[in-house]
Specification:
Length: 204
């Protein structure tokens, strides 16, 4: 089939094609406007020490201390995947967890270690104020668990979790990307519907 044949088909089925494109755009706009409010926060955590340990031994330029910080940072990342820790954080912020299953609690936070002492935590909620409270409570809760690991040893230079203010952004799909996807989808579907409709009309 030559290009002019496609052009003839498009002229015959022009109304069908543009109707499908228009409906696709309309659905995309309605969906974009109807999205529920959702915000995403990124919290940066650093692993520090509560004090300095005085020692006469050579510390290999603090190599072992950095290695220990890295291992503890991995522990903090694992805590964010623990339902027990997540529930403690959410309960302190007075969030309702009755409808949350274990899988939901495990996936509430996305934590990853960026370096030996730096952790990035991403999480979402419908309220930006709640996201700020979660950041504050998370640091307090993590330090509580951190202190519980030092009850027997009572080390002066034990780990401490230091948090910063979270970066909060709107997590909803913006208008132009939604319209662009709707337009591409409408053109694709409209093209094939026009071809099929023309084919069955000719068969009749």
């Amino acid at each position: 089939m030559e290009l002019k044949d496609y052009a003839d088909i498009f002229k015959k089925q022009e109304k069908v094609f543009w109707t499908i494109v228009f409906l696709s755009l309309l659905v995309a706009i309605i969906w974009q406007k109807g999205q529920r409010a959702e915000y995403q926060a990124t919290l940066l955590l650093n692993i520090g020490r509560s004090g300095v340990e005085n020692t006469q031994d050579y510390t290999y330029d603090s190599f072992y201390r950095l290695q220990a910080d890295e291992r503890f940072a991995d522990t903090v990342v694992r805590w964010f995947g623990s339902p027990r820790v997540v529930e403690d954080i959410y309960t302190a912020v007075s969030l309702d967890l009755h409808n949350e299953g274990l899988r939901d609690l495990k996936n509430a936070f996305e934590a990853k270690r960026l370096s030996s002492q730096m952790i990035e935590v991403t999480y979402t909620d419908a309220s930006d104020k709640t996201l700020k409270k979660i950041a504050e409570v998370a640091v307090t809760t993590l330090n509580h668990y951190t202190d519980s690991l030092n009850q027997e040893n009572k080390k002066a230079s034990w780990f401490i979790v230091i948090g910063s203010d979270p970066v909060i952004r709107d997590a909803r799909v913006s208008f132009f990307p939604a319209v662009a996807v709707g337009l591409v989808f409408g053109i694709f579907v409209g093209f094939w519907v026009a071809l099929l409709r023309n084919y069955f009309c000719n068969e009749k």
